[in-house]
Design a protein that fits this description.
The protein has 256 residues and is an alpha/beta fold. It has 2 domains: 133 residues, D-Maltodextrin-Binding Protein, domain 2, CATH 3.40.190; 96 residues, D-Maltodextrin-Binding Protein, domain 2, CATH 3.40.190.10. Helix content is 34%, strand content 26%. The chain has a 5-stranded mixed beta sheet with strand order 11-10-12-7-13, sandwiched between helices. A 3-stranded parallel beta sheet has the order 2-1-3. Helix 2 crosses helix 8.
Length: 256
């Protein structure tokens, strides 16, 4: 068989399409990390979708996203129909069929996609207090964003909540004292306050909830392509914080 000249071979390799990495993601929105339910907006799909796409591309691959219900995501990952699944927290049960980035046998948070923390914001001078378990001195509802998981969390804790459609609307309601506090993703709340320094709001601690979320791979893909898997995880760790700073403002209006 006649061998291709080196230059022609190099041009053929450069023109070859990137291999697809089949990435599963839940079909429900959890702004700002993933927007939309059954579809993704190419220009504003969510911060973690953008991060995954960028990390995968930097490793010479192309991310092909498949939106599925949560239980099916796990099953498809287990049987190898998905190469990876976005935004899964670590559990020992999942680790039996999913490969997570580990360090000394524990999930490596440096290679997480995101840390989802919900925190409370109140007006400066407000007596509202939060000790991590109980809310004190509450007279009005706590503001939330419609459709976000924090609504269920507050409901389970017996804390009255009132939903609005955006970060801006909730901070306006807080300023007008229509609500006593606002529960929102910390990254969104901090970014909004940074861009509105005159707003007299303060952040309460500790967070209502905090948990790292990862991009675990199927055991089949991890065995077949370990270097590609490690490349993607490394790219996630390198690009995550810069992407957040650069793109967070695009997700402040709550239109997802």
């Amino acid at each position: 068989m006649k061998l291709l000249p080196p230059l022609l071979l190099a041009c053929w390799a450069a023109a070859a399409p990137a291999a697809a990495l089949i990435v599963g993601i839940g079909d429900q929105a959890f702004p700002p990390y993933k927007l939309g339910n059954q579809t993704l907006d190419p220009s504003r799909p969510g911060l973690s979708v953008e991060l995954t796409r960028l990390a995968v591309q930097s490793c010479g691959l192309k991310a092909e996203f498949r939106l599925l219900p949560g239980a099916r995501l796990l099953k498809e990952l287990e049987i190898g129909n998905l190469d990876a699944v976005m935004m899964l927290s670590y559990t020992p049960e999942r680790a039996r069929f999913a490969v997570y980035p580990l360090r000394n046998g524990l999930p490596d948070e440096a290679r997480r996609l995101a840390t989802l923390s919900y925190v409370l914001y109140a007006l400066k001078g407000s007596p509202l207090a939060w000790d991590g378990h109980h809310l004190s001195n509450q007279k009005r509802a706590i503001g939330t964003n419609a459709g976000w998981s924090i609504n269920l969390d507050l409901q389970r804790m017996g804390i009255p909540a009132e939903a609005a459609n955006s970060v801006e609307q909730n901070f306006d309601k807080l300023l007008s004292r229509h609500i006593d506090g606002y529960a929102v993703h910390e990254s969104l709340g901090d970014a909004y306050l940074a861009s509105h320094p005159a707003l007299p709001a303060r952040k309460l601690s500790p967070p209502i909830s905090t948990k790292p979320y990862f991009l675990p791979f199927s055991r089949h893909y991890a065995a077949a392509q370990p270097s590609q898997m490690e490349c993607v995880w490394h790219a996630v760790s390198v690009k995550r914080d810069e992407l957040l700073r650069r793109r967070i403002s695009a997700y402040l209006d709550g239109k997802g």
